[in-house]
Amino acid sequence: MDWITTSTILGRLRDWRDEGAWETFDRRFRTPVTRFVRGMGLTEEMAEDAAQETMITFARLYREGRYEPGRGKLSSWLFGIAYKTALKIRTRAAAPRENPIGGTEGARRIENMPDEKTATTIWEYEWRRFVLGQCLERVRHEFEPDTMRVFEKLMDHASASEVADELGVPVKMVYNAKHRVLNRMRAVREELEEIREE
Amino acid sequence: MHCLDYADFERYRAGKLDDKTGRTVQEHVSDCESCRARLAEVDQNLALFATLEPGPVDHAPERIGAYRIEREIGRGGMGVVYLARQQNPDRRVALKVLRRDMDDLRARRRFEYESYVLGRLRHAGIARVYEAGVASEAGHDSRPPGAPGAATAWFAMEYIDGPRIDDYVRTNNLDERSTLELLARIAEAVHHAHLRGVIHRDLKPGNILVESARPGEGASEQAQPKILDFGISRALDTESVSATLCTETGQILGTIPFMSPEQIGDEPLAVDVRSDIYALGVTGFLLLARELPIDVKGMSLVAAAQRIRDEAPARLRDKAPHVGADVETILAKALEKDPSRRYQSASELAADIRRCLSGDPIQARPASAFYTFRRTVARHRLPFALSAGFAVALVAFSITMSVLFTRARAAERLAAREAETAERTSAFLLNSFQASFPSEHLGDVPTAREVLESGAAQIERDLADEPLVAANLMHLMGRAFDELGDIDQARTLLTGALERRVAHPDTDPLLIAENRNDLGLLEAHAGNVARAIKEYEQALSIQTAVSGETDPAVATSLNNLGASAYRIGEYERAETYFRRALSIRRDLYGTNPHDELTESLNNLAESLRIQERGKEAEPLIREAIENLRTMHGDLHPNLASSRLVLCNLLLSQGKSEEAMFEAEAALAMRRRIFGDDHQSLANAWYNIGRVHENGEAWKPAAESYEHAARIGAATLPAEHPLQASNLFALGRALRHLDDDEAAREKLEEALAISRKARGPDHGNTKQIEEEIRQLR
Fold first, then answer.
1. Sequence-ordered list of residues with C-beta below 8 angstroms from that of B661, at least 6 positions apart, any chain
2. Residue A123 lies in a domain
3. Which DSSP string corresponds to B470-483?
4. Is residue B155 helix, strand or coil?
5. Who is most buried in A65, A96, B154, B253, counting CB within 10 A?
6. CA nearest to B41 within chain A
7. DSSP string of B72-94, one letter each residue
8. Which run of H or of E encompasses B134?
């Protein structure tokens, strides 16, 4: 299956008749956003709301031409929206409930939110994780299933000799498979990162 | 020292070489340029590898139901398997998550019922199903059960910590005896489930794991095979193999060699316990010979299916000479094509294996020579039917003369019958048309619809005992009603034709395929894309089986499938279908102008254009336009369509003026052909609106969208997603013109349609809500 580039996915959002555009976009980007807002301390339910709102805001602003690829990385832009949305949802969820003991629960929760610097670190971690996941997904189809089986077992902390024993292949082949996949992942990562910054 | 490989470098970097070797490596690397480069590569790779996480890097939900996901442990045809932890009771489970549409109440009930049955299967050889449920897709929207959209069905199963059975047999280098012991145990477990009415349907080594033997115990004596996924395909209502063949090609390929001929054919209802016995036979063969009984490696799906249906399995002892004759006989019996010649229960199979192990005489007998001969003839039925003359010539030289002659005569009879049917069909048509133009009704010429209606009524009345003639007529008339836009009438006729054809033994299968294609077109016109796809897929599988992969009719089905995939936004899939269709048509027509070729060029170009691959699309669409002009001049509906594709393409390249030129030309053409209010004008107006919008000319954009919405309201079926798009575009344009009141009205209308047409949780519906929130 051909890999769909990020710019294609975003470009498609502009045609409102494109029935598959939203789903493709959503599938690609929702995971890092959800993980990030969870990392910001939102409950599962709040995180789902925040992710949903982030995606919709992102799509709208993109369609209105508010994102200019030249001006900054896609990831920073997405981060900005997700961060603001997470704060908003958090405040919204906490605000109406008065704490009987004094002060408001909301204020305390906001205090507990990670500051922007910490949030940036969380985001960068999630984004890196996301990009690597994308790399792996993208190269998965380029290799024989057996090669990927070797690779996944290694990722699962099995040693090369354990994998060789289990799958009945020579150890050398295990190392070859590992580095072939990694070489390809590195190449793909460069492409993906390039697209992000276009 | 020779150059080093990846394994050497990793050991070197891990400090696993002794000092002396380490130094030698160091020296070599400093001298050898290619090893230096290789080492740098390894370093970068290892740095990347260190940042990778075990298990799923993407898309893993955090929890499902009461289960916390730990990591992904497998990915298969039907879904993903996670290792998960249940809190109460505290245990590890294998959580199989299947993305399936569970909205249909019937599917839901069935799933509940089946999971209840599966929960009651208790056998040492079957991985237990603890619990099952349906959840909205975790990590995505929190859709309540039963709401539209795909939901996730999951099974929490006993977690088996062990290798697949084929890996197990290979790594432990199991001998014949131990392998047979395992096989007998598996058969006994399968029998246990069969007795409780559960058929596996997907038995294969990947679904059988072996729990490790305790230390000190023999590899096979205590090793417990455990079958996974019992009955799951049925619980998910995925019985129809033909329905999944095309949609999940990649996934089903691994399963195909284990599917019985009846399972692979077009009789999914014929699947019973004996299909599982066949799969056991294949598994046993594979374990003993390390090869499949019928090799389908590298074959297309259709070719593989055909081979399984037609070709005799290899003899076990040709592949594994050390195996006993009785074992070969047992597996051959399990692998019989005809279910009635197989073991009739898994316990019979298990018992024969056990007899063999204890040196007692087995009950299975090798197939007789006569039976083998009959199968050979049956296998060639199709070619003989197609070339009856050749068959007749051949029989003179053959001992099979009488059998083949019968076949040939049958084919002749069939041909004669078809000719007769065709003749009767045209006679009937002529009659009914004459009846509709009676001379006494001068000046009162009936409409096409009236002619058809009277004909349809007559079919029911006059042709009750000539079902094939009736079917031909119903088919023709159904198509005509479809063109007139009378969906219900068309559906009744096309379905009626199909039923009659399917029920009749002399029907030409290609006519069934054509019938299904037309029924698919009808459903697509009615907006039922999923149903359309089903029909096209069935048509395609008949056509490829009968006429091969490159038949022109195959291209038609592929094109239809592509169009449907396109309509639901699956553009890559659409592209694949269109490409295949184009390649067939290119072989047929070369670069000569032809309508079918042009259709393929246009469709492939559009599927590429929408994926923003304009560079690839442009030469195709330009060729299409040129061909159309050569064939039809400057005024043709297809030319208008192709110019709209070009319009979108130019727009995406930022060439607004040229884009507008194409869109306006298309609009003018459609107006001349269809008048001012035809449905196809809405598309042209929408495109013109987009070009204006692109230049932020909101006023003319709003006017164009207004036209699109007006025509859409009059001509599209109620609640059509395209109308939601027209209204949304109009609403947005009005908002930019600061007419919030009018914008709200249009957006609310778009929202109501989108909620019904796409569902409340669809991204597009949510975006309309967002747009409404932006209003003051």
1. none
2. no
3. HHHHHHHHHHHHHH
4. strand
5. B154
6. A183
7. EEEE-SSEEEEEEEETTTTEEEE
8. strand B129-135
The residue among B580, B579, B586, B568 whose CA lies nearest residue B617 is: B579
Tally of domains within chain A: 1
B201 phi-psi bin (left φ>0, alpha ψ -120 to 50, beta other) = left
Q: Which residue has the higher pLDDT, B218 or B250?
A: B218
pLDDT of the residue at B220: 47
In a domain, A20, yes or no: yes
Backbone φ and ψ for B516, nearest 5 degrees, come out as -65, -40
> Tens digits of per-residue pLDDT, B335-394?
999 888 899 888 889 999 998 898 877 777 664 433 333 343 344 333 322 222 222 222
Q: Which residues contact B167 (CB under 8 A, 6 or more apart)?
A: A166, A167, A168
Identify whether the C-beta of residue B539 lies closer than 8 Å to the C-beta of residue B513: yes
Q: Is residue A172 part of a domain?
A: no
Per-residue pLDDT, averaged over B471-484, amounts to 76
Residues of chain B positioned with their CB less than 8 A from the CB of A132 = 48, 51-52, 57
**Quick one: tokens of B302?**
């259709």
Q: Is A34 on the interface with B (CB under 8 A)?
A: yes
Alpha-carbon gap, residue B233 to B692, rounded angstroms: 51
Q: Looking at residue B744, what is its pLDDT?
A: 95
Could you write out the DSSP letters of every residue in A167-197?
HT--HHHHHHHHHHHHHHHHHHHHHHHHHHT
State how far residue A186 is from chain B, nearest Cα, in angstroms. Answer: 8
Q: What residue of A is the nearest CA neighbor of B251?
A: A145
ipTM tops the 0.85 cut? no
Nearest chain A CA: its distance from B718 CA (Å): 17
CB nearest to B10's CB, from A21, A130, A175: A175
What mean pLDDT comes out for the span B715-743?
Answer: 90
What is the per-residue pLDDT across B500-552, written as a single tens digit (0 to 9) for each? 999 988 788 888 998 999 999 889 877 788 899 999 999 999 999 888 888 88
- Please list the alpha-helical segments (H only) found in B136-203: 165-171, 176-195
3-state secondary structure of B638: helix
Q: Does A31 touch chain B (CB under 8 A)?
A: yes
Check which CATH number belongs to the domain holding A18 and give it: 1.10.1740.10
pLDDT at B293 over 90: yes
Distance CA B275, CA B115 (A): 21
Mean pLDDT of the B69-95 span: 74
- Decide if A182 is inside a domain: no
**pLDDT value at residue B208:** 93
Least confident of B56-60, B117-121, B157-161, B227-231: B56-60
Gap between the Cα atoms of B554 and B382, Å rounded: 18
Residue A24 has pLDDT above 70, yes or no: yes
Q: In the structure, what pLDDT confidence band is assigned to residue B113 with cuts at 50, 70 and 90?
A: low
Structure tokens at B719: 């609640």
pTM of whole model > 0.80?
A: no
Put simply, the answer to whether B763 touches A55 (Cβ < 8 Å) is yes
Residue of B nearest to A25 (CA): B763
Q: Which residue in chain A is spatially nearest to B691 when comparing CA positions?
A: A15
Average pLDDT over residues B421-440: 46
- Which chain B residues contact residue A21 at CB under 8 A? 569
Q: In which domain, by residue range, is A104 found?
A: 1-115
Q: Which domains does chain B have, with CATH numbers?
A: 6-51 (no CATH), 58-159 (3.30.200.20), 161-364 (1.10.510.10), 380-507 (no CATH)
Which amino acid is present at B536?
Y
Tens digit of each residue's pLDDT (9 = 90 or more) over A63-94? 877 776 655 677 888 888 999 999 888 877 66
3-state secondary structure B207-275: HEEEECCCCCCCCCCCCEEEECCCCHHHHCCCCCHHHHHHHCHHHHHCCHHHCCHHHHCCCHHHCCHHH
